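Quarterly update, task 2.4: zinc ion-bound model.
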Amino acid sequence: MEEVVIKDKEKYLRDNYPYRNIPQLNSEIVCIHCNNIFKVGQYKVFKDEYDEEYICCPDTPECNGSVIDWIPLE
Ligand SMILES: [Zn+2]
């Protein structure tokens, strides 16, 4: 997978977040794959060989978690 550099992370999240309630970039979440806490805005985007883009854990490629593995912290 190849990393995609996102200039406007807020807009990208708004356009590509898979669920209805789009989190703030400064919201804290836990990745259930690596158990690390990070801010939503630290996400990375990678694309596969079909140019399909995925919102991924900031620890990618060490972690293979993605947006669906995020648990919000209160
Ligand atoms: Zn992770």
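Highlight for this quarter: Residues 2-72 form one domain.
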